[in-house]
Structure formats: C-alpha cells, structure tokens
Write a structure and sequence with these properties.
Strand order of the largest sheet: 8-9-10-11-12-13-14-15
Bound molecules: phosphoenolpyruvate, manganese (II) ion
Shape: elongated
Oligomer: single chain
Largest sheet: 8 strands, parallel, barrel
Length: 348
C-alpha cells in the first residue's frame, strides 16, 4: 500500500503518521520527492482503513498495490505452471506436445485442442477426432451442453454427447474437453479430462466453487466483457477450493467492432504471463467467428508465446449445427498445424 502526502504536510505530521503505521505493525519506506512525499507500507496492511487515511488533512491519496489474486499470482509463484493431462495418444505430429503419457500445456509446452463446436453424431466426432489427432492435436474438444444465445437454437446432445466423446476418446486415445454449464451435471463429466467453463459462465461463482472441489483440469475462458484481473479472480475461486489445474483461455472480447464476432485481445498472452503462472491458450475460432481468419490468428498465438490454441474443426462446416462459419475443415486444419509447427520451430 502506498500513501501520498500533500505538499503542505510538515515533517512533524509526517513522522507522527509513520509512527502510527509502525504501531500497526507495518514497515514504512519514505520517499521524498521534489513535489510529493510517498510512504510505502510493507507488511500486512489488511487491517488499515484506507478510507479513514484518505480523510486525514495531510494525505493526498492512498492506493493498494498488491493484487487481490494470490494463488494465481506470479509474484508468489514465479515458475510457469505446466498442466499435465493424461493421454493415451502419442503425439502424431507437431506442434502439440505430449510427453510420458501426458498432453502438456504451459512453460514452453504447447497444447492443441481441436474438434467441433458441438458433438452431433458418433461418425462426426470420431472422424474429426481421428483427423485432428493425425494433424497434431493433443486434446479433442466437443460441446455437449451448449450455451446458445437463443433458446430455440440447438442446445447440444447433452449426456449423449458426452458418451459420444468418450467413444472418440477410446478410439483415438485423445483426452476430451467439454463445457459444463451447471454444477449438478458434474457426475456426467466423470470421463471428461478437461472441463471447460465458457465465457458466459466465467463469473458463475457457484460453478467455479464446485469445480474447485474436483480434481479435473479446468479450461477457464475469459468473459465477453471481463478484465484480466477478473479472469484471475475467477481462477482464484477454483484454486481457493484446492484445484490448481487451470488453463486460461482468451476467446475475444466485446468491443465496438462488428466485422469480427469478437475482438481477439492477443495482448492477453504477454499480459497474463506477467500477472500469473497459469498457462494461456488462444481460441482463434470464437474470437474471430470467421474460418478464414483462424489461420492467421493461430499463427499469431504461436508467435506471441501462447501455451496452446483451441480451434473448431468440423467434417462438414456448412452443415454444422453450431458455429459452422468459424469451423475449419480437417484439410484446412492440417495446413494450420503445419504452419503453427513452423512458427514454433522458428522461435526455438
Ligand atoms: C465454445 O467453446 O464452444 C464456446 C461456447 O465458447 P465461448 O464460451 O468462448 O463462447
Ligand atoms: Mn463454438
């Protein structure tokens, strides 16, 4: 916490305030500048009443500088967290990283999560799973419970969709990623390796608390209008319950721009890397909403040091029940993977 003194504060008043802080058990670093004096308080300042301090005649401003997120904060955990998701699939191609039976994400290890927006049939999910695995994906995604803007739109295959994902997992060995919308569904997610919390549920605090008591990796997507700090506070809800296996996902935010579905905030990667030790993946599909833009944004993600990408791939995008316009065909996905592997190679 820092306290900025007004210019007219006398030395006696300043020393009196310093003594008061010291009596509260905090150390005070005094920095006397040409125009203002700043008191830096070090130690446990939680009991100090900021509002009361601001009312003092000699105080110009009071600011807390320690962040409210603790467990996810890089300050208290300088090393990158590497998330390990058990897999039965060997990496068949670059750029996905698989080692010793784990798909890895974070600390230089790159995760490739790919698959359709929604699971639609056994043939569809198994075919897409085979193709994305062959191209270098390390995890299979597929929505079973879909958060749709319209209640009349396809809502997902629900429990049956999760069963079909399990079949695709058995066929390919790929770990599976699927979105949960209601904590009462947790039992259905037993075989799901990574539980996704979608953008719309980033601040569903009861859901986050429930996930904090599981041992499942959570893919936490940034909300449509949420700050990095809010994203980390949501991660904190999960971590406070004891579950520290979290992958953060930037999926674009709402801005005034309407040409793309959302605005991909690529600076989320360096910013979050500075703020937190948790891995950060980019979702170029939902952030652009346009299949042709997925390749350049996936390359940008790899180039700027993201810990992975999540891409929607459909065997027949024009007939997809959800998000066809942003879905790649398996052939297009092959090409993106080749190029992402080249970008990663160039950075080594
Ligand atoms: C999704 O990944 O299918 C999804 C619904 O994403 P988001 O929550 O980012 O909109
Ligand atoms: Mn989608």
């Amino acid at each position: 916490m820092i306290t900025v003194l007004k210019q007219n504060a006398t030395v006696e008043q300043r020393d009196q305030l310093i003594k008061w802080f010291e009596d509260q058990g905090v150390k005070v670093h005094v920095s006397v500048g040409e125009f203002q004096t700043v008191l830096g308080l070090v130690g446990d300042t939680t009991e100090i009443d900021m509002d009361m301090l601001k009312l003092l005649d000699i105080v110009a401003d009071v600011k807390r500088i320690s962040e409210p997120y603790k467990k996810s904060n890089r300050r208290f955990h300088p090393e990158d967290t590497i998330i390990k998701v058990p897999t039965k699939a060997e990496a068949e191609a670059e750029p996905g990283d698989v080692e010793d039976g784990y798909a890895l994400c974070g600390g230089g290890k790159f995760a490739v999560i790919a698959g359709p927006c929604s699971v639609e049939s056994e043939e569809q999910i198994v075919e897409v799973a085979r193709r994305v695995k062959a191209a270098g994906a390390t995890m299979l995604r597929g929505g079973a419970f879909k958060p749709r803007t319209s209640p009349y739109a396809f809502q997902g295959m629900k429990a049956e969709g999760l069963e079909l994902l399990s079949i695709a997992k058995k066929e390919t060995g790929l770990p599976i990623v699927s979105e949960i919308m209601n904590e009462n569904h947790l039992d259905l997610f037993e075989d799901v390796d990574v539980i996704q919390v979608g953008a719309r549920n980033m601040q569903n605090f009861e859901l986050l608390k429930a996930l904090g008591h599981t041992n499942k990796t959570v893919l936490l997507k940034r909300g449509l209008a949420n700050t990095f700090e809010e994203l980390l506070m949501s991660a904190e809800y999960i971590m406070a319950g004891g579950n520290e296996d979290i992958i953060l996902c930037e999926r674009g935010i709402r801005t005034f721009e309407k040409y793309t579905r959302n605005t991909l905030d690529i600076s989320a990667v360096p910013a979050l890397h500075e703020m937190t030790h948790l891995p950060v993946v980019i979702d170029p599909s939902h952030s652009t909403g346009i299949a042709a833009f997925v390749k350049p944004m996936a390359l940008a993600a790899a180039a700027c040091g993201a810990d992975g990408i999540m891409i929607e791939v459909h065997n027949d995008p024009p007939r997809a029940l959800c998000d066809g316009a942003q879905s790649l065909t398996p052939d297009q996905f092959d090409e993106v993977m080749d190029l992402v592997a080249k970008v990663r190679e160039a950075l080594k």
